[in-house]
Amino acid sequence: MNKEFLFELLRTGSVSGNEAELEKKIYDYMQDKADQVTVDELGNVTAAVNPSAPFKVLLAGHADEIGLMVTAVGSDGSLMVTKIGGIYTTAYPGHKVRIYTKKGVIYGAVANSREIARNSELKPSDLRIDIGARDREDALKYVELGDTVTFDTDVRELLNDCISGRALDDRLGAFIVMEALAEAKRRGASVGCYAAATTGEETTGNGAYFAASRVRPQIAIAVDVTYTSDNCGISEALTGDIAVGKGPVLCNNPSIHKKVNERLRACARKLDMAVQTEAANGRTGTDGDTMHLTGVGVPFALVSIPLRYMHNPDEVGSLRDVQACIDLLAEFFVSCTADMDLKPF
Ligand SMILES: [Zn+2]
């Protein structure tokens, strides 16, 4: 795995609707690793191996991240915001942030006080970002309404191959699908292999709709993060016994295709790789749900990366799990044949 490129992605801002800088980096990176690399009107980057093959398998990892968007500027020059995606509002006060403006990144501090810290009902509209502006006029020289905002955090290496950083959800997934595709090419996969770094997953799911509608795959796999129960995680009853560092997570639910899941399990067995299992109800809350309902309908599965503290300033995941997901998905690409029968009986 190209750790340097992964870290470069994790340092790049890509709030939902504003993914172009990150997508361009993926577009450039994939030029010599795929047979074809395309970008669509939304900015989805889709790389392909064997693009003329009629049987197609599409992997999708979303390139966008959650964040804030500037909605107004106070007379004192402070920025008011709304949320983009599922944020924890109480994680912002006292934190450094980056504002992605047309003139480049500027920095801010989110106002905090005893009253704010005690307010567990804090709403995004209660947040104020101090950029050091003298007044509204001064702030508007730099900032435009609609500019996006993220935590000003960086990727860090922790113990035991763990990393922390902002929005590993789901830039890890976007990285994994591209590395798996590159490996499938090296290993001579025979079917049409596609990897899409999708836009908009955290807000509208529009990227996955555009990508899957255009590729028209026979099989789709969403690669995203999932909650763990190993460290201040959510209840084991909700998510199953899932831990960081213990391998890719496969999901059993009513919409995930059992034969695709079985093939993924067979690939893991072949690689002697441990996989974890989670169970969920009808929807997965990922690009998988969207791709599933494109065209004439697309059988799909979900491969998840275990992640602690999802949607917080510092999420924690494992590079070992990232590599295992790459290996599993490359093996899946290579295992697919054009005569696969996906009917249950
Ligand atoms: Zn995600």
How would you summarize the topology of this molecule?
Layout: H1 3-10, H2 20-30, E1 36-39, E2 45-49, E3 56-62, E4 67-73, E5 79-84, E6 96-101, E7 104-110, H3 114-118, E8 129-130, H4 136-139, E9 148-151, E10 156-157, E11 162-165, H5 168-186, E12 192-198, H6 206-215, E13 219-227, H7 236-239, E14 249-252, H8 258-270, E15 276-279, H9 287-292, E16 300-307, E17 315-318, H10 319-335
Parallel strand pairs: 3-12, 3-13, 13-16, 14-15
Antiparallel strand pairs: 1-2, 2-12, 4-5, 4-9, 6-7, 6-9, 7-8, 10-11, 11-17, 14-16
Helix pairs in contact: 5-10, 8-10
Bound molecules: zinc ion.
What features would you describe in this structure?
The protein has 345 residues and is an alpha+beta fold. The protein has two domains: 3-65 and 166-335, Aminopeptidase, CATH 3.40.630.10; 67-151, Elongation Factor Tu (Ef-tu), domain 3. It is built from ten helices and 17 strands. The chain has an eight-stranded mixed sheet, with helices on both faces. Strands 5-4-9-6-7-8 form a six-stranded antiparallel sheet, with no helix packed on it. Strand 4 and strand 5 (79-84) form a beta hairpin. Residues 62, 169-170, 201, 224-225 line the site of zinc ion (ZN).
Count of discrete alpha- or pi-helical segments spanning 4 or more residues: 10
Mean pLDDT score, rounded? 96
Give the CA-based shape: globular
CATH level-4 homologous superfamily of the largest domain: Zn peptidases
Task: Please mark out the parts with pLDDT under 50 across 5 or more consecutive residues, or reply none.
Answer: none
Number of strands: 17
Distance between the termini: 39 Å
* Alpha carbon gyration radius: 20 Å
Q: What percent of the residues sit in helical stretches (DSSP H or I)?
A: 25-40%
The CATH class label of the largest domain is Alpha Beta
